[in-house]
UniProtKB/TrEMBL annotation:
Family note: Belongs to the alkaline phosphatase family.
Gene3D superfamilies (UniProt xref): Alkaline Phosphatase, subunit A
Residue segments, region Disordered: 181-203
Keyword Phosphoprotein found: yes
A Pfam family reported for this protein in Swiss-Prot or TrEMBL: Alk_phosphatase
Ligand binding (Mg(2+)): D40, D137, T139, E281
Binding note for cofactor: Binds 1 Mg(2+) ion.
Cofactor(s), names only, from the UniProt record: Mg(2+); Zn(2+)
Name of the molecule in the record: Alkaline phosphatase
High-level lineage: Bacteria, Bacillati, Actinomycetota, Actinomycetes, Micromonosporales
InterPro entries according to UniProt: Alkaline_phosphatase, Alkaline_phosphatase_core_sf
Organism annotation: Actinoplanes cyaneus
Length: 410
């Protein structure tokens, strides 16, 4: 009562002082949906290369046009390395704690930590993950599972079914859901990569998912026909693109695009009464950057941009949607260069790529690489929607967890 009186008194005082707001006083917009998008390996140089290539000197990527921007540092708490891998990076987002490389949402002693995926479920939200990597790869895994070993992808799949139960699971990695000898929809030892083949140690997890009520889809047509969740969609043995040395079979050709999978996930999750939490990842940026393959990396960045365009349009027509776009670390030690300069980093695997055209210009740029691994460069973070303003400034990657956990509370 006192509080109410005070507020009335404050409004009266404001009117008398001539400072009353024209609009009635209302609280900040509530967060209903959270869409978190990871460009794996995407830092400032990758975004600038994509801007020049897809938008030109005076253009802007949609992912860069989100109204709030900041920077994240990415270093892990690892006894052997100052540079993060995707597992420790995603664990920082998903749990708010720094950990060692290879760890999936466990602390430095290996103890499991609460994840945002589980916290979103506990808050009554539907949850989902979409990736061009294996659905059990480090980034999605950190949001929905706990393990000291990121490579135990069959155990991560089992945890999805038995514990975190995401309502939508779309991506690659069928090999980890089936035991050896059960090829599934994607044949073992395919010509383009004979190393692929079913290798799960947890039984037939696709059957287990179906028994549990998941609709299982493995083709674009089946995905298009799925009208309600939960849905498990696996569209390849491993990643949804082909990793190989440059010119020796490297291909970015997902059978279902990241934007298509994301659009379907949004359709399926939108029915949730209390909103949803969705993690989206473009993995090709990182993996092609590991191979210092500029042309393929730019293709993956183009798909990432298309996906952000779709998500931003969704947010514009669905009030209460917080969208966050960032990367888990930089990959390749990438520099955007004048094509006229020499190749300072040598001509081995790190040879410069290019020249690539700047859209709408006669000028071109080269992409030069300094490592086949990750680097410690900061990553940009851009955001739109309620609570997005909190991403302004420079923060450790663990800060993402703080903001998203608060956002889960509305
Ligand atoms: Zn990587």
């Amino acid at each position: 009562m006192l509080r109410r009186y005070s507020r009335v008194a404050a409004v009266v005082a404001a009117v008398l002082a001539g400072t009353a707001l024209i609009k009635p006083v209302s609280g900040p917009e509530k967060v209903r949906n959270i869409i978190f998008i990871n460009g794996d390996g995407m830092a400032a140089a990758q975004r600038e290369a994509a801007r020049l290539y897809y938008a030109g000197f005076d253009g802007q990527l949609i992912m860069d046009s989100l109204p709030v921007s900041g920077q994240l540092t990415t270093s892990p708490h690892d006894p052997h390395s100052p540079i993060t891998d995707s597992a420790a990076g995603a664990s920082a987002w998903a749990t708010g704690q720094k950990t060692f490389n290879g760890a999936v949402s466990v602390d430095v002693d290996g103890k499991p930590l609460p994840t945002l995926g589980a916290q979103a479920k506990a808050a009554g939200k539907a949850t989902g993950l979409v990736t061009t990597a294996q659905v059990t790869d480090a980034t999605p895994a950190a949001f929905f599972a706990n393990t000291s070993n990121r490579y135990a992808q069959d155990d991560i799949a089992r945890q999805y079914l038995q514990h975190s139960k995401p309502d939508v699971i779309l991506g690659g990695g069928e090999d980890w859901w089936l035991p050896a000898g059960t090829p599934g929809a994607y044949p073992d030892q395919p010509a383009e990569d004979p190393a692929e083949g079913s290798r799960g140690s947890q039984g037939n997890l696709i059957s287990a998912a179906q028994t549990q009520g998941y609709r299982y889809v493995s083709t674009p047509a089946q995905l298009a026909a799925a009208r309600s969740g939960p849905v498990l969609g696996l569209f390849g043995n491993e990643e949804l693109f082909q990793i190989a040395s440059e010119g020796q079979g490297d291909k970015y050709d997902p059978p279902v695009s990241l934007a298509t999978m994301t659009g379907k996930a949004l359709d399926l999750l939108s029915g949730s009464r209390k909103g949803f939490f969705l993690v989206v990842e473009e993995e090709g940026i990182d993996e092609f950057a590991h191979y210092n393959n500029g042309a393929r990396m730019l293709q993956a960045l183009g798909e990432m941009e298309k996906t952000v365009r779709l998500v931003r349009a969704y947010a514009a027509s669905h009030p209460g949607t917080l969208v966050v776009v960032t990367g888990d670390h930089e990959t390749g030690g990438l520099v955007v260069e004048d094509p006229g300069t020499g190749d300072e980093s040598g001509d081995g695997v790190s040879a410069e790529d290019g020249p690539f055209p700047v859209k709408g210009s006669d000028l071109t740029f080269n992409l030069d690489w300094t490592t086949g691994g990750h680097s410690g460069s900061d990553v940009p973070v851009t955001a739109i929607g309620p609570r997005s303003e909190r991403f302004t400034g420079k923060h450790p990657n663990t800060y993402v967890h703080q903001v998203l956990l608060d956002a889960l509370k509305g």
